[in-house]
Amino acid sequence: MKKVPPVPAPVRRPRGRPRSFDREQALDQAMEVFWEKGFEAASLADLTRAMKINAPSLYAAFGDKERLFLEAVERYTSRRGESCDYCHEATAKEAVETLLTYMAEELSSSSHPRGCLMMMAATTTAGASPQLQAALAKLRSLSRAKLKERIARGVAAGELPADTDATALANFYGTIITGMSVMARDGASRKALLATVEAAMRGWPEKAKEKRPARDKVAAD
Questions:
Q1: Where residue 129 sits, what CATH number does that domain have?
Q2: Rounded Cα distance, 30 and 10, in Å
Q3: Which domain does 180 fall in, by range?
Q4: What does the pLDDT look like over 106-163, one tens digit per residue?
């Protein structure tokens, strides 16, 4: 009697259509749109056109516009942190000056939209959900905390006066960065932003120099 060959098991295919685009590249394109237009002004048509996908693919990959925006902002802050790891400078003053100089050059660069995506996030999400606003506030808080921590280390190391308020100083330089971002959006040059950095660093608290005791005058013979 002939043996009947076993019937091969059916191949299981993944459910749903396979993704036909590069998610990371699409996210980069979305980041550029949000950076240029802000959250509220960036339409779904703007995003899908730049990302080269349709609306169903956007929702399938990223959830919705708010989650796409938050992911773009997180990507932006991560890249900025990798590009400018200012905390490893030898002193707190050098760290802050490195950060400000980097921001002056980054904000005025012609390789991407001018200004800062974090600033755009703060000023264009008034109508967003409380969840998105809370997530963005947390990112801004982490950024300020990092700057404050580096300044506080400088105070502890004796680089600044012992009574220096690290929180106030971090808020001051954070405000300088926000102001430079607005300047850059208005067309300020790299030279103008670097001049702002130089002026801001003149406000750095310096320790009072210790007075040396005067040498005794030698009596004349």
A1: 1.10.357.10
A2: 40
A3: 23-201
A4: 999 999 999 999 988 988 998 999 999 999 999 999 999 999 999 999 999 999 999 9
